[in-house]
Amino acid sequence: MFVQNLRAKNPLIHCITNYVTVNDVANAIIACGASPIMADDINEVAEITKISDALVINLGTLNERTVKSMKASLKQANLDDKITVLDPVGASVSKFRSSVAKELLKEFRFSVIKGNLSEIKFLNDLKSSSKGVDISDKDKDESLENIAFIARNLATKTGAIIVITGQTDIISDENTTYICKNGNSMMAEFSGSGCILAGLIAAFVCANKDMPLKAALMAVCCNGVAGDLAKQKNVLTKVGNMTFKQNLIDEIYKMSDDKIEDLAKFEEIE
Amino acid sequence: MFVQNLRAKNPLIHCITNYVTVNDVANAIIACGASPIMADDINEVAEITKISDALVINLGTLNERTVKSMKASLKQANLDDKITVLDPVGASVSKFRSSVAKELLKEFRFSVIKGNLSEIKFLNDLKSSSKGVDISDKDKDESLENIAFIARNLATKTGAIIVITGQTDIISDENTTYICKNGNSMMAEFSGSGCILAGLIAAFVCANKDMPLKAALMAVCCNGVAGDLAKQKNVLTKVGNMTFKQNLIDEIYKMSDDKIEDLAKFEEIE
Amino acid sequence: MFVQNLRAKNPLIHCITNYVTVNDVANAIIACGASPIMADDINEVAEITKISDALVINLGTLNERTVKSMKASLKQANLDDKITVLDPVGASVSKFRSSVAKELLKEFRFSVIKGNLSEIKFLNDLKSSSKGVDISDKDKDESLENIAFIARNLATKTGAIIVITGQTDIISDENTTYICKNGNSMMAEFSGSGCILAGLIAAFVCANKDMPLKAALMAVCCNGVAGDLAKQKNVLTKVGNMTFKQNLIDEIYKMSDDKIEDLAKFEEIE
User: Fold this and answer.
1) What integer pLDDT is reported at residue C262 of this predicted model?
2) Per-residue DSSP letters for C105-149?
3) Closest-CA residue to A34 (of B238, B132, B93, B115)
4) Residue C161: is it exposed, middle or buried by C-beta count within 10 angstroms (0-12/13-18/19+)?
5) For binding substrate, which residues are annotated in this chain's numbering (chains A, B, C) (predicted)?
6) Interface ipTM > 0.85
7) How far is C152 from chain A (nearest CA, A)?
8) Which residue from A228, A230, A233 is spatially nearest to A265, judged by alpha carbons?
9) Mean pLDDT, to the nearest integer, of B112-130?
10) A213-223 confidence digits (pLDDT tens)
11) Cα–Cα distance between A165 and A188 in angstroms, integer?
12) Residues 14-43 of A with CB under 8 A from B
């Protein structure tokens, strides 16, 4: 029903995102049933947010010019109560990125914040350090319990749904926490896995506004199940990372509520 | 003969285009037999237009900086009588984009203007509204007769060849109008189908300058036939949108005049 | 051992590169065993270079803003003795690009400079002219002897390892020159072959710092062998350029020192 809703509504997703993975994000947004529009000029972003159903802010390759546009878009989105998704790519990697991430968090409301544990810890004022745009090795050993606690804590502080990606994904608001065990190691072997997920989350949540936490969970499951199906396509030979990426987006395109119901491995945790 | 000319001449196509689909545009331009050069800095664009055979201006992800560069390039291109193609992506989606589109149309001559019906209507001062960068649902029901009339009208006003993409594509100057029925619904299921076509049009027209209308038609046929062949590759299973995109550009790479002659479904209409 | 070292160390590669091929560069860097980080804002680039193991400067789609960032990054990289790779895409194509290329060469130290013969000739103050971002037809006929001489000459002037790509690739410092005969004509049939190689060189060299010339040679071999394997995948039918590109990066992902040892065709020349 979540996928079906999304495809019936075909929401428009405004993305201010990095130029590294933007094409894959656009195609993944189409694949799941929504329509992407990428626009980052200060002269038009607020108008484009206004006609869109959701706004994705991705901090990869941010610059002074686009940060202003992000703020103008977020202002409009908050005014109109649109779905907003923050993807704080490499949030702690530089002072500039750190301060932008913190500023956005302070000045605007986000419906969902999605990051790896290093990024989410940073936003939560916990000591952490990314390895570039990837999770740090140290953070890889954090217990699921701790991660869930961090998610709930940031959810409480910000009012946002928190998605922490990792071997096990966490999807949480301040009261309820889900884990999802779909997906596999190949998803870290290409650039843009997280960016794609942020796009999917925006699409799923704005098409299923009455159940945002469940919708965010379904977006995570959709991505993970697609990753699992993509991997199964090449069981006999080692799959290359580019073919895997293509298969993943293809599988999002072919996704259905039934497939998610059959293959999703999620549960609510305490 | 159009494809053969293009491959023999290997023209250089200067593109000032959006960062979403730029890679696919570059590879499609190579695939058809031309060479792409993407450059958008005001300090070099005029020089690069000067050494190029054609200029493609694509309004997706435009910004203040690149609009200045578009104008400098167009000025040079018009001065040197180069082939110029305008792709007014989402022309009416914001005041900024609308005014840039209208300004470019007023200040510069275009050899070809290519858009979906919503975009072309807007440039023709007809009431319309895009859905983001896609055609609006309302415009989808316009009759072929009306669309042809709109194309001829804009061709008369601007002196440009007008290409209107849709289920049936229209290629028209002020006197002669062709329709092309190749292509299929998968071409709207990935990002950049229109951007790729604009690149092909520039390549075909500048390599076949004595027959620009026919060359634009052949570019549309090339794209449509490639789309049809790409779809046929995956008749037994549902094809994903990323695989379809890859197949499409691959088929452009393998295109020949013979294939177009065999498979193109075009005719002249009154 | 070069590939093994690279995968064991998983170095972080900071790229200031063009928006045309950036996604393929990122995925190729992951494929070979390193991690990419693309960042070009003046407010963060020096910091990001500082935490990275190597810096790639690619002049495609450069602009005034990113040139400042390139200089800030290079300053930091030279200060910290990081591996730096220059890819002077289309160096002579405009006055702006020419002067930036020459300025960077004058003001900063590069570990490796990689280009086609037209680009390297230009940096060497020899008469040449690119065809857009491709080698000029005239330069295609230069003898291997002359090319090797040009490489050694620029190596002596700059202290950099020089890589000249072409039908036969040249890898040279001021004393020792290798040629590599892997690779094939398909590698010029998609956009970004050279950009990918620059990323690989940065990764191989910074993970094998004690043998930089051999490491650069191994990067060239890795790329060429991957291209050869990619081509062999489609011997029965003509392969499209997009499928070839995907196969190439996939083969980099599956590369091993053993494969390079088996398949690399390189030798030292006088």
Assistant:
1) 98
2) HHHS--SEEEEEHHHHHHHTT-----BTTBPPTGGGG--HHHHHH
3) B132
4) buried
5) 38, 192
6) yes
7) 35
8) A228
9) 89
10) 999 999 999 99
11) 11
12) 19, 22-23, 26-27, 30-31, 35-43
Complete DSSP assignment for C28-62: HHHHHT-EEEE---TTTHHHHHHHSSEEEEE-TT-
Q: Are C14 and C73 in contact (CB under 8 A)?
A: yes
Residues of chain A contacting residue C251, judged by C-beta atoms under 8 Å apart: 240
C19-39: per-residue pLDDT in tens? Answer: 999 999 999 999 999 999 999
State which residues form the domain around B134.
Answer: 2-269
| B interface test, pick of A250, A252, A255 with most B CB neighbours within 10 Å | A250
Interface probe for A, chosen from C27, C30, C67, C247 (most Cβ of A below 10 Å), is C27
- Strand pairing class (C112-116; C161-165): parallel
Structure-token pair, residue A203? 């699409």
Alpha-carbon distance of B150 to B174, in angstroms, equals 10
The identity of residue B176, as a single letter, is: T
Domain count across chain B: 1
Question: Which chain C residues touch A238 with a CB distance below 8 Å?
Answer: 254
What is the token pair recorded at B261? 């002659």
- Which residues lie below 8 Å from residue C164, measured CB to CB, with a gap of 6+? C114, C115, C116, C117, C120, C147, C150, C151, C170, C172
Q: What does the CA dihedral B19, B20, B23, B28 come to, rounded to 10 degrees?
A: -120
Q: Looking at chain A from residue 248 to 267, which residues have their Cβ under 8 Å from any Cβ of chain B?
A: 249-251, 253-254
Decide if B52 and C96 are in contact by the 8 Å CB cutoff: no
For chain A, say whether C61 makes contact (Cβ under 8 Å): no
Give the CATH number for residue A95.
Answer: 3.40.1190.20
Backbone angles phi, psi at C240, to 5 degrees: -75, 160
Would you say how long chain B is, in residues?
270
